[in-house]
């Protein structure tokens, strides 16, 4: 195929994102522009993403994000070969804004439109950054998702296991809240954990006693809450060191569980590559354990740069190109789906 250039639009959660990605004739990818307008400060006062606020922010900012991406790429709509847009899963208000914009642009220009599953966007990122060959194992660990995916082609995913309750990022955020740390909590918990004693509190390793690759994180959160309350009851408050030790114990439990389940997933699906995506993949302690597990299984470990691990438009543009090359396009009937398992 010739070079193909796509606009990608992402608005499924709390990032308004647009990007322009080109696939060269040799299959390599170039990110010509990637604009991500986060909404952290809008939601921070509420301690979590508020769907109504997110929907309004996407509606207000999407046009600007798309214009900024095109202008950074130095391209006009006429230089594109297609438009990719996240059609789900996610918050319905944001998804609708993105879809309406994509449909309008497609109708006005005659460009093909391709609806993309947000999870496929994450799952295909190793092919955007490193031209990885099929098949590979993807561990997706974010604030909203936690699953092992056997990736065998642009339309071929098999879920080997997933969380039965919270996602790990959600657990990091809740622990941060319990300990009075800012949101989103992951990076703050990691920073505290760095100078904590991970062995002072013995937190559970949920579901390790059961076979398979499913995960659970909500019991861990309850255990941290109980330990915190015991310390407060005994001493009348938490010292800085108490807080660091609680963070360290919690983070080690998450890392241990992810490592063991990854070991099992690689045993069930023995492939030469383990890739991670999602905000939690930024955690150095977790990364280090996963790297060891991959090495033990003789697999390469790949973690895309953080800005491509978290939500972005480039992964949507790329997934759209892959679907397009597989012969898939959508029409004006494309619907937003708040739930859409891969
Ligand atoms: O992928 P992402 O940007 O958004 C979605 O959830 O889709 O992930 C955000 C999540 C948040 O829960 C945040 O606390 C977590 O990733 N996170 C981390 C770290 N950095 C971000 N968790 C643990 N350690 C980190 N360094
Ligand atoms: Zn995501």
TrEMBL record:
Subcellular location, in the record's words? Cytoplasm
The record lists the catalysed reaction(s) as: L-threonylcarbamoyladenylate + adenosine(37) in tRNA = N(6)-L-threonylcarbamoyladenosine(37) in tRNA + AMP + H(+)
Predominant location category: cytoplasm
Domain (Gcp-like) ranges: 31-318
Top EC class, one word: transferase
Alphabetically ordered keywords of this record: Acyltransferase, Cytoplasm, Iron, Metal-binding, Transferase, tRNA processing
Cofactor details (free text): Binds 1 Fe(2+) ion per subunit.
* InterPro entries for the chain: ATPase_NBD (IPR043129), Gcp-like_dom (IPR000905), KAE1/TsaD (IPR017861), TsaD (IPR022450)
Looking up NCBIfam families in the UniProt record yields: gcp_kae1, T6A_TsaD_YgjD
Q: What does this protein do?
A: Required for the formation of a threonylcarbamoyl group on adenosine at position 37 (t(6)A37) in tRNAs that read codons beginning with adenine. Is involved in the transfer of the threonylcarbamoyl moiety of threonylcarbamoyl-AMP (TC-AMP) to the N6 group of A37, together with TsaE and TsaB. TsaD likely plays a direct catalytic role in this reaction.
**Name by which UniProt lists this protein:** tRNA N6-adenosine threonylcarbamoyltransferase
Q: Which gene encodes it?
A: tsaD
